[in-house]
Design a protein that fits this description.
The chain has about 120 residues and is mainly alpha-helical. Helix content is about 60%, strand content about 0%. α5 (about 75-90) packs across α6 (about 100-110).
């Protein structure tokens, strides 16, 4: 998040605008998952993740994902969770393609294990 948005500088989005973006993202997800019995990106199986996330990434996002896998030693579960979140972030933009900035934001939200 940018400092200006958090500090209230530059006039952030209103609750109404955010609500509309969320509703639009949900409509996009429902349309994408129509006929699967799924309602959201979070419910996708590995098959849907390959189809709707991995196959919809640009080259820079794919490179970033490879780098994150190697440097962060991500498990298969973490890999799929990051891709589902990146898909949702792209849906909020809205973008049909997962770009590197969507993936970077998803990786950034990953819980860190301390210790």
């Amino acid at each position: 998040m940018e400092y200006e948005k958090l500090a209230g500088e530059g006039g952030g989005e209103t609750s109404e605008i955010v609500r509309e973006r969320v509703e639009d993202a949900r409509r996009r997800q429902l349309a994408r998952l129509q006929g699967t019995g799924l309602m959201s990106n979070a419910e996708m199986s590995a098959t849907e993740v390959r189809l709707h996330c991995q196959a919809q990434m640009d080259e820079q996002a794919q490179s970033l994902l490879r780098l994150a896998m190697a440097q962060l030693s991500l498990s298969a579960r973490a890999f799929h969770r990051i891709l589902k979140l990146a898909r949702t972030i792209a849906d909020m933009e809205p973008s049909d393609i997962i770009h590197s900035h969507h993936l970077a934001e998803a990786v950034q939200y990953r819980q860190r294990v301390s210790g």
